[in-house]
Specification:
By secondary structure, this protein is an alpha/beta fold. It contains 14 helices and 12 strands. It has 2 domains: 195 residues, Rossmann fold (3-Layer(aba) Sandwich), CATH 3.40.50; 116 residues, 3-Layer(aba) Sandwich (Rossmann fold).
Length: 325
């Protein structure tokens, strides 16, 4: 038996994990190779029910075997808390392979623990083989926390699974051996294609009262929402857009808190051409993306989804130190 432990912590992780879960199930049902014991660890980085638990239902993922229930916090405190809570789990389970996805704090935190762990004496491995799914992606902007997470995770992982062929050249320039890198495709898009027809059955637009063409908006990056000087101009922009087109805005808990703190939330709530919703489940949100006239977002994953669905997308992000290779 081969024991694989997968880490999930935030919305994009769940979507990538869904395709991996299906692949493991297919292997166990059809392959003559070793049976895979697949253990799912949810760090609790996203703790809102709509941003976490409902995704397991929508995507058909088994409920996590272990939930660290870390919750929110600064990058430092959240990463440290994940590491503290994950270490005893890793020592108890001693998986053969640790599989981490994406570039969130859960990804780097669990990778760091696994890279330094010492399994009990007598175990067949000293530590797990670390596999990073979605490796090699680069924005070349180290002001982005995700960029730091993905660079460090790639540097200490044993195997790097990439979503596009260009990633190999980025990793080679960083000194990564070619035999560590394997081009496997985009598991998040695999999940999207698996569920896009099911998303058509969602009645979320009727529930929200969307009766005409709309722009779908998401905001969550600290660089956009944590400071008044960046958030207020974005609110001004949404109000201008709403004069020409309905705006549908599922608000991230972090963003809602900032809007309320800065006294901006009421402006959006009072605007009859802006529909505010809370965090949505995967299928409901996919339905909104697919039927939007335009998506305005600061999410890298949503940019990928709109590209596949051929929906125009505007990215709200400043890359101050970005460069092209």
């Amino acid at each position: 038996m081969l024991k694989i432990m997968s880490i999930a912590g935030a919305r994009p992780n769940f979507m990538k994990l869904a395709s991996i879960v299906r692949a493991v199930e297919q292997h166990n049902n059809t392959s003559s190779g070793p049976v895979i014991n697949h253990i799912i660890v949810h760090t609790g980085q996203h703790y809102d029910q709509k941003m976490s638990d409902s995704f397991f239902v929508d995507l058909g993922i088994p409920q996590p075997d272990i939930n660290l229930e870390v919750g929110s916090g600064s990058h430092a405190s959240q990463t440290a808390e994940i590491m503290k809570r994950f270490e005893p789990v890793l020592l108890e389970q001693c998986p053969d392979i640790l599989l981490v996805v994406g570039d969130v704090n859960s990804t780097i935190a669990c990778t760091l623990v696994a890279a330094k762990i010492e399994y009990p004496v007598g175990h067949k491995r000293r530590r797990p083989i670390i596999v990073h799914v979605e490796a090699g992606l680069r924005s070349f902007d180290r002001d982005m926390p995700e960029e730091v997470n993905r660079i460090l995770t790639d540097a200490i992982s044993d195997l790097l699974f990439t979503t596009e062929e260009l990633c190999l050249s980025y990793l080679q320039r960083e000194g990564v051996a070619e035999d560590k890198v394997h081009f496997v495709g985009n598991v998040m898009i695999d999940t999207l294609m698996q569920h896009v027809e099911k998303a058509d059955l969602s009645i979320i637009r009727e529930q929200l009262g969307v009766d005409r063409s709309y722009a779908l908006v998401t905001l969550h990056r600290p660089s956009n929402v944590d400071r008044l000087e960046t958030l207020e101009p974005l609110v001004d922009c949404l109000e201008k857009i709403a004069k020409r087109q309905l705006v549908v805005f599922p608000i991230h808990p972090r963003t809602k808190n900032s809007l309320q703190t800065f006294g901006l939330y009421q402006r959006l709530e009072d605007n009859q051409d802006i529909i505010i919703a809370g965090p949505l489940g995967y299928l409901d949100f996919l339905n909104l993306i697919k039927n939007a006239s335009v998506v305005i977002t600061d999410s890298g994953g949503i940019q990928e989804e709109t590209t596949v669905l051929k929906v125009p997308c505007v990215t709200l992000r400043e890359n101050r130190n970005a460069r092209l290779l």
